[in-house]
């Protein structure tokens, strides 16, 4: 299976200074602001969680793109009072559920939260003390090809924007069939970069 690998030295660095090395079939490209495309034939699920420092209310959101970087669908869910880790895990869970329900068969889930990434890629994720981690593990083990990937925050701007859209539907997940105005700039900016590595 093909993979995109990401490397960085995060010690004493701000997110805007991070540079990730994208290795794609032997091609290397350094970028601190663009998306990282999944391998050809795969879809990319970018997710993010957001929690207010004032109210502690959180939300989860994300989007699914094809290997050309084009929008396929997106989602947002209001979570109520939560933690940043729980918001990120909810975003991963809801994104995987959405992708599975549509019938996607090859999916790379990208997150910028190292803590969540470590939980869901742990060898004992299926027996984790966290309910959401166990649920994500069960989803990941279904009959499809899927992979988790850790990316830098500045490469996750579209998902970050969606997670912060105020949608209050009593815990229901809201699905966006069309690209949102708030993230169109991110999508258009990323497409030339995707073309350069595909």
TrEMBL record:
Q: Which residues form the RNase H type-1 domain?
A: 39-168
- A Pfam family reported for this protein in Swiss-Prot or TrEMBL: RVT_3
Question: Per its UniProt record, what InterPro entries does this chain match?
Answer: RNase_H-like, RNase_H-like_dom_plant, RNaseH-like_sf, RNaseH_domain, RNaseH_sf
Report the coiled-coil segments. Answer: none
PANTHER family assigned to the protein according to its UniProt record, in alphabetical order: OS05G0353850 PROTEIN, POLYNUCLEOTIDYL TRANSFERASE, RIBONUCLEASE H-LIKE SUPERFAMILY PROTEIN
Q: What is this protein called?
A: RNase H type-1 domain-containing protein
Look up and give the organism this protein is from.
Hibiscus sabdariffa (roselle)
């Amino acid at each position: 299976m093909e993979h995109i690998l990401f490397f960085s030295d995060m010690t004493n660095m701000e997110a805007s200074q991070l540079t990730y090395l994208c290795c794609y079939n032997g091609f290397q490209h350094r970028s601190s602001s663009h998306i990282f495309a999944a391998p050809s034939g795969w879809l990319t699920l970018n997710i993010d969680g957001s929690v207010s420092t004032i109210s502690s209310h959180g939300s989860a959101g994300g989007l699914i793109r094809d290997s050309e970087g084009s929008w396929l669908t997106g989602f947002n869910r209001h979570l109520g009072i939560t933690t940043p880790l729980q918001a990120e895990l909810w975003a991963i869970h809801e994104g995987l559920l959405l992708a599975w329900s549509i019938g996607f068969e090859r999916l790379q889930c990208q997150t910028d939260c190292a803590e969540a990434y470590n939980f869901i890629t742990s060898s004992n994720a299926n027996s984790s003390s966290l309910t959401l981690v166990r649920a994500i593990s069960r989803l990941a083990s279904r009959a499809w090809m899927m992979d988790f990937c850790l990316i830098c925050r500045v490469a996750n701007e579209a998902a970050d924007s969606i997670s912060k859209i105020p949608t209050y539907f009593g815990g229901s997940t809201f699905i966006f069939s069309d690209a949102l105005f708030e993230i169109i700039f991110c999508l258009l900016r990323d497409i030339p970069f995707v073309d350069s590595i595909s």
